[in-house]
Amino acid sequence: MIRLYRIPLSTNVERVALAMAHKGLEVESVVVDPADARPVERASGQSQPLGEEHPRLEAWIRRMDERPRV
User: Fold this and answer.
1) Structural domain harbouring 44
2) Do 32 and 10 contact (CB within 8 A), yes or no?
3) Residue 67: what pLDDT?
4) How many domains is the chain built from?
5) CATH code, 17
6) Phi and psi torsions of 27, nearest 5°
7) What is the distance between the alpha carbons of residues 13 and 4, in angstroms, rounded to a whole number?
8) 32, 9 in Cβ contact below 8 A?
9) 20-47: pLDDT as tens digits
10) What does DSSP assign to residue 69?
11) Does the pTM of the predicted model rise above 0.70?
12) Which of 13, 23, 38, 51 is packed most tightly, with the most Cβ within 10 A?
């Protein structure tokens, strides 16, 4: 199962969630307070301000599109 860290009202997270649902992937959603990015930093090993565009998001969605549906 894939863990998805969700920032409320984040359009990036919504796009990822839609792509995962479209593929029929099981997802564990973890809601993260935008004021506290520590859970995201611990999981990813990267420090990035929440709400910024992630340069690898579209590439990740393309990879999910290439996976067969479940």
Assistant:
1) 2-66
2) no
3) 76
4) 1
5) 3.40.30.10
6) -130, 135
7) 8
8) no
9) 999 999 999 999 887 887 888 888 777 7
10) P
11) no
12) 13
Two tokens at 46? 């990267």
Amino acid at 2: I
Determine the number of helices (DSSP H) and then strands (DSSP E) in the chain: 3, 2
By the 8 A CB rule, do 7 and 32 touch? yes
Strand ranges (E), 1-70: 2-6, 27-31
Q: Which residue has the tokens 């860290």?
A: 5
Exposed e or buried b per residue across 12-29, where buried means at least 16 C-beta atoms within 10 angstroms of its C-beta? bbeebbebbeeeebeeee
Pairwise CA distance, residues 35 & 50, whole Å: 8
Cβ atoms of 46 and 5 within 8 Å: the answer is no
63's enclosing H/E stretch is helix 57-66
Report phi then psi at 10, rounded to 5.
-80, 120
